[in-house]
Amino acid sequence: MFIINCPYCGERDQSEFSCGGEAHIERPKQPTELSDDQWAEYLFMRKNIKGIQFERWNHAHGCRKWFNVVRDTSNDKIHAVYKMGERPPLK
Amino acid sequence: MLNFNSTIKQKKTYSDIKIEEIEPIIKINLRSKKREFSKKIGKILSILPPTEANTSSGNEDYNLLWLSPDEWLVYSNNKNQSLKEQIDMEDKLFDEISKLNQGAVTNVSDHWVMINFKGHKIYDLLSKSCPFNFNEFKRKKGSVAQTLVNHVDVILHNKYDNELNLFVRRSFSEDLWLWINDSARFI
Ligand SMILES: [Zn+2]
After folding, report:
1. For position B1, what pLDDT does the model report?
2. Residue A54 near residue A23 (C-beta atoms within 8 A)
3. Which of B131, B146, B153 sits opposite A63 (nearest CB)?
4. Mind telling me how many Å the CA of B133 is from chain A's nearest CA?
5. Residue A11 forms contact with B (CB below 8 Å)
6. ipTM
7. Residue A14 distance to chain B (closest CA, Å)
8. Which among A9, A13, A64 has the least Cβ separation from residue B131?
9. Which residues of chain B have pLDDT under 70?
10. Nearest CA among A52, A55, A63 for reference residue A6
């Protein structure tokens, strides 16, 4: 269990949120020109990093807004929280 | 309003806690990202939608709760408002907001069940199965929180000291009511 600082509501327990997986995956500009392998890569393949990962989270049982979280997957330490459309703070 | 039969049949009193459903009252969900929206609501309800998170505004007749940066909930304080008065209010909002493309107005009177909690131990009761930290909420009249109580989504509104209104979806209300009463016995 850990606390997440929702950019709209403030600090709440993790159980109020749901994780939407890796963030900043860009949809290919011309999907029709991709091979099946390239399309599958975009649709299904995720990095699943051990360490600092950029993720999308949804405050499902609160304001129901999506936002981004920079989380260390090895110890659940959250390094940054930022709204959708904003630039990632570190890279 | 359809005026469904309530699943909650009785008032309950425990030492330091009183629980009862308040109905029928009108509840309206508002959504908008438009600039004019706030002014229009102010004109119709004589209250402005709060922009600060986890807060509410209100007057004698209505409460306006912040749910998200573009979503609010209005509910009436008056159980004796006639059906005509309720419909007139909804129509006014609908004509000024939905029809003019300023946002969405949805009547959720029968969607949410409102349960009133009174007493010194209401926060002890809720904290038995709620991940929310009530420290600040308790102190600030008008505070709003959306969270989980016994795994059920709820909206909480701090009405007065040691009094709050809890909104729960109708289909979950009986389950939550049973849990509340079961837990209140051991406080
Ligand atoms: Zn939130």
Report:
1. 55
2. yes
3. B146
4. 8
5. yes
6. 0.89
7. 9
8. A13
9. 1-4
10. A63
Is the Cβ–Cβ distance between B41 and B47 less than 8 Å?
A: yes
Cβ separation of B153 and A61 shorter than 8 Å?
yes
Q: Could you say which of 3.30.1360.120, 3.40.50.1240, 3.60.140.10, 3.40.640.10 is the CATH number of the domain covering B15-184?
A: 3.30.1360.120
- Give A2-30 pLDDT, tens digit per residue: 999 999 999 999 999 999 999 999 999 99
Classified by CATH at the fold level, domain A3-83 comes out as Folate-binding fold (3.30.2270)
pLDDT (0 to 100) of residue B117? 97
Q: DSSP letter for B3, please.
A: -
Strand pairing report for A18-22 and A10-13:
unpaired
> Which chain A residue shows the shortest CA-CA distance from B133?
A12
User: Of the candidates A10, A12, A64, which has its C-beta nearest B68's C-beta?
Assistant: A64
- The CA angle A3-A5-A10, to the nearest 5 degrees, is 115
Residue B24: per-residue pLDDT: 86
pLDDT of residue A1: 80
State the residue for tokens 């309720």: B86
Residues B99, A47: Cα–Cα separation, whole Å? 46
pTM above 0.90, yes or no: yes
Ordered by start, the domain boundaries in chain A are 3-83
